[in-house]
Specification:
Layout lengths: L2 E3 L18 E4 L2 E4 L9 H5 L5 E3 L1
Antiparallel strand pairs: 1-4, 2-3
């Protein structure tokens, strides 16, 4: 089960460099997680200052 980014995302980008498989990118003014690439490590959720990332 991959992680997902909610509408609470403020597009700060703090999560992107913490992803070990580069599954996070910017689309339409917000960050998104590629569910196929996500390895469920949780690094992104731990670094999100807006608490916008959770398990899908």
């Amino acid at each position: 089960m991959a992680y997902k980014i909610s509408d609470q995302c403020v597009n700060c980008g703090a999560c992107e460099p913490d992803c070990p498989v580069s599954a996070i990118s910017e689309q339409d003014g917000a960050r998104v997680i590629d569910a196929d690439a996500c390895i469920d490590c949780g690094s992104c959720a731990a670094s999100c200052p807006a608490d916008a990332i959770s398990e899908a």
